[in-house]
From TrEMBL:
Residues 40-74, 98-178 form a coiled coil. Residues 200-232 form the C4-type zinc ribbon domain. Keywords: Coiled coil. This is C4-type zinc ribbon domain-containing protein.
Length: 247
């Protein structure tokens, strides 16, 4: 592994950590947006439920109006029929049915009045909710716009970083890149670590055997830590890697 290869691995880790940080910044916008929008969202949910219930009640009231109209028509016919009954038995039957229709009509009319009252109150509540939503949206609008703009900017920066990474890895050694990617696919953030002056892995602090230390410092082979599996590079890259991890 040449000095340039080592530098490339360190730089790639720097790029990847910057990408991870950018992804985290983007994720952090979601709870902030939710927090700012929450009051308006609660009002909108309440308004949506109220509209749905109002629609149901309006349908119930229209159906009840049809029922009232039918019963009134039936009452009218029974009133007319009661004047032409031929005997006491028919009169009793008509009277009983007429009384039943009147009671049912009265119940329907009372229920219709109750529904109309509910409709009026619900329409008033909906008007209040719509006004509150408008006020809430106006109040949080600037902050929402600021957060959305910030998220858009962060997403564009991330896109640029990912493009830079793609361009960068095109010039890297394919075998070293595969190894690096394989380590990171295991869920690790760190894929490259420096050998400390006293011969330890700066990631897990395990002591590296002297023969491997010599290979890392003077050879060209790509050496991984036996303890944690990261790619080990020379001590001179320690400051660069420390800067990467602190970024």
């Amino acid at each position: 592994m040449t000095e340039q290869d080592r530098s490339n691995l360190v730089e790639l880790q720097r790029i990847d950590l910057k990408i991870l940080a950018a992804q985290q910044r983007i994720r952090e916008f979601d709870p902030l947006l939710d927090e700012v929008e929450q009051p308006a969202l609660v009002l909108e949910s309440d308004a949506e439920k109220t509209r749905a219930r109002l629609k149901e009640i309006n349908l119930e009231e229209r159906q009840l109006e049809l029922s009232v109209a039918e019963k009134r028509e039936r009452q009218k016919k029974l009133d007319e029929r009661s004047g032409s009954v031929r005997n006491l038995r028919e009169e009793a039957a008509v009277s009983a049915e007429l009384e039943m229709v009147k009671r049912a009509l009265q119940n329907d009319e009372q229920e219709a009045l109750s529904l109309l009252d509910q409709i009026r109150r619900m329409e008033g509540r909906l008007e209040e909710l719509d006004e509150a939503i408008t006020e809430a949206r106006a109040f949080v609008g600037p902050r929402l716009e600021e957060l959305r703009s910030g998220r858009d900017t962060a997403e564009k920066e991330l896109d640029a970083m990912e493009q830079d990474r793609e361009n960068f890895v095109d010039a890297m050694d394919a075998m070293e890149l595969r190894l690096y990617e394989g380590i990171r696919r295991g869920g690790r953030v760190t894929a490259v670590a420096a050998l400390t002056e006293d011969g330890a892995c700066s990631h897990c602090f395990g002591i590296v055997p002297p023969q491997l230390q010599n290979e890392i410092r003077h050879g060209k082979a790509l050496i991984r830590c036996e303890g944690c599996g990261v790619i080990l590079t020379v001590t001179e890259h320690g400051d660069d890697l420390a800067e990467v991890m602190a970024a």
